[in-house]
Amino acid sequence: MKKPFKIVLRTLVVIIALFFLSLLIVPVFFKGVFEQKLKTELNNKLNAKVDFKSFKLSLLTSFPDLGFRVDKFLIIGIDEFYSDTLISIGRFKVGVDLLSILRKEGIEIKSVIITNPHIQLINPQEGKPNWDILKEQKIIEEDTGQTDNELFIELKKFKIKNAEISYHSIPDEMYVSLQQLNMLSAGKTSSGKVEFQIASEVESLMFKMGDIPYLKNVKFQWTGAMVLDMEHSVYSFLDQSFSLNDMNLNLNGSVDLSDNDPDVDLSFHSANNSFKSFLSLIPAFYLNDFEDLKASGIFSLEGKIKGPYVESDSIYPDAQIELIVKDAAFAYGDLPAKMEKVNILLRIDEKGDDLDKTKIDIDNFSFELAGNPLKSEWHISTPLSNPQLRGVLKTRLHLSDFMDLVPMEDLKLRGELNADLNFDMRMLDIESENYQKIMVDGNLKLDDFFYESEELDLPVRIGKASLLFSPDRIEIPVCHLKIGKSDLSFAGELNNYLLYYLRDDVLRGSFRLKSGYLDVDELMHVYADTVAQVMPDTGSVMLVKVPENLDLEFATIVKSLSYGNLKPENIEGKLIVKNEKLILDNFHMKLFKGFLGADGSYDTSDSLQPSVNMNLKINELDIPDAFNCFLSFKALAPFAKDLRGKVSLDFSYSSRLGKDMYPIVSGMNGSGSFRTKGVQMLDDRLFDMMKGVLKLDPSYTAEIKDFSASFEVKNGNVIVKPFSIMAGNIKMNISGEHGLDQRLDYLIKSEIPRKDLGTAANGVIDGLTAQAGNLGLNFDPGEIIPVNFRLTGVIQNPKLSIESFGKGDGESLTQSLTKQIEEQVNQEKEKLVKEAKGQALYEADKILKDAEREVAKVMELAAESAENIRLEANKTAETIIKEAEAKGPLARSLAKVAAAKVREQGDKQAERLVKEANEKSEIILDTARNQVDELK
Length: 936
Fold this sequence. Notes:
Blueprint: H1 2-45, E1 49-51, E2 54-58, E3 65-76, E4 85-97, H2 98-102, E5 107-123, E6 151-169, E7 174-190, E8 193-209, E9 212-229, E10 234-244, E11 247-256, E12 263-270, H3 275-279, H4 283-286, E13 293-308, E14 318-332, E15 339-350, E16 359-369, E17 372-381, E18 388-398, H5 400-403, E19 411-426, H6 427-431, E20 439-453, E21 460-469, E22 473-483, E23 486-495, H7 497-503, E24 507-515, E25 518-519, H8 520-532, E26 550-562, E27 569-578, E28 581-591, E29 594-603, E30 611-622, H9 623-629, H10 631-636, E31 643-656, E32 669-681, H11 685-694, E33 708-714, E34 717-727, E35 730-738, E36 744-753, H12 759-774, E37 784-794, E38 797-805, H13 813-827, H14 829-884, H15 889-935
Parallel strand pairs: 5-6, 24-26, 25-26
Antiparallel strand pairs: 1-3, 2-3, 3-4, 4-5, 6-7, 7-8, 8-9, 9-10, 10-11, 11-12, 12-13, 13-14, 14-15, 15-16, 16-17, 17-18, 18-19, 19-20, 20-21, 21-22, 22-23, 23-24, 26-27, 27-28, 28-29, 29-30, 30-31, 31-32, 32-33, 33-34, 34-35, 35-36, 36-37, 37-38
Helix pairs in contact: 14-15
């Protein structure tokens, strides 16, 4: 009895061991088949790069089914999408009925679980979309007498965890983003039909058309059933329920794809009539203590979309949508203000066979805020052939009431807004400037306006502002504005504003602008902080961009202004904004007890590198003030630091600008002249060197007289044309140049009275006279001794040497010696010609190398700026996410969306900088090649 029992027990143990062993062996046996099949099929059918980190098969975790798992699955585009990831999946798990693999009836899939998928769909302006990656398959019909296993779907579970999906259609200017999508579904197949239930939610949904975000940071949920009739290509939506924040919609209908042209029959309606649910779609309400919001009133939304979509004939389904809000009101619990008598009636009637017959009517949009009314209506018709817009807006609001209506932290707002506008216009009348057929009449007034928030460092005040509207212009009779310490008052008019707004045409205008005080440093700081929200500081050019499509003129009077060390007063002139340029016309001002006049332009048409062209006229400006306040003056006239007195200057130049908005002296070119008055030399080091060389009496002193000179600036090098000065009894004529590398090369021609020379110097002259006599020359030095000095070295360590000395009645000693070597020069002429040719080749090579170095600098600047943009964008994005960590799941979700947008904008700006650098590099190289051709 014991022996049979032991045999049975051993047999059972062996069977169990073999069973578990099979659970380990079978996946190993099938793994290679599945992995090879997956890679082969994907490579054969997709025009994309496909990769995954690991592939695993298992029976232990999914018995009696066969489970396979793919980790870190990627599909990356090629060609124009070579750097874009189409699909990224953290983990992909599928459960398959093991026995169905062996049966001829087909393979049965029971479960699919997708974790952390990221899908990016892009429809470009030109070319095919990035998801169009299927290769064309050749169909070869062959009767083998066998049929491949069919694929049956009997899903007990289809699950998506934490998905991110984006869709960007550039031609349609459409952008859709779904963040943190989770979905659970189950279904089955029968008689050619697929039936399944679905439940999903999206933490943050965005839908944007053009510059208008119709849905932003909306929480979305979807439940319902779908029936896919695969045999007849009809897809039905049964009792679909959608939730947008707190608003629910029901959807029913079908889409018929049996023909080449889809046929749609869908209807939807709001599942509840709560006005509060409608307010949940507005972020300002939903994100501010929505639970404390008290609302009443009737709300309804319903619509139908029905008809065929025939792409070839541009026929679309008809659509009718109606939104109604009636006698609604809302208020927050502890806040005193209440908005009531809210009424909205919106109707959209789209005719699919002729979109030009589409009408959008807001027959009523009105409310009362703290007893103050707003009434308006808007109508749009014939949107394609000749868009017509007509409507009315009338209101009188106290803006401070909004502070008492909606919770607004770290924000102060007040002011009274009055508007009374009537308009009726057609696009063709606007484009043809047929103003007698356009009706725009009314005014908008703002009084005692004040705005202050954390986003804007400086408070903004508008004491009084008024706008009067007519078809061809907007008159601004008065506007008193104060930003921080700066005040502005202006009046004037804007022309062509309708085409500017509707068609991005040029906006024209003229204004009279007055200011008692402008703090430019403070205003530029605010501007930089505002720009940084879109384009982080790159460490390169802090570009103050002049907007496009503006043609504005400002007759300007500013009593005082502060910009760094500059404190000009009584500024007058004409300021013109045109063609992405800021133009100064006949500007003049009082500066450091002197006078400064300026004409010129600041040009930002090259967004990679702004430039300036300027004509300056300075009259009797203190030299120390000019030296300490103008960086370019320090670089161009370093000797001025040792001078005291007044300088008058005429200077015309062009230059690029650096990050501090000052000229880059190394690229400056120009010309000018200067005059001095009452000059004193504080450091007479150079004159001491002359006394030492000439053996002048140590007690000899020099007083610099007033002098004038003209000069040129080429790539930052200053070339001084000959000018004369008197230093004591010594007359000097000076010419030469100095560069940014501090090198000096000046010729100083001096005439020195012999009586001023010391004994040693006179001994030298007597010696020269004797040597000239030995050579048979008649050399009489006279009472005035010409001495030519050469000033070399660097500014911090100059070197002075005598180049020529003395003069007779006939030729100078230098001229005589020149004649003696003339014959030798002629003999070497041929050799010099050859050397000149070699020099030309050297110059050509130098031009090309200089151009290549400049291109390298441009590309290095662009690459560095692009990288800094991306780094700062990521830093900003991480800061946004980090600050939201403590504010709850919703805030974190919204922060992720904002962070993604910052990164996206950073990438776009970086790409634009690199592109412009490439274009600039080509221009530089072409110019260099042309110069080389001229040398040849």
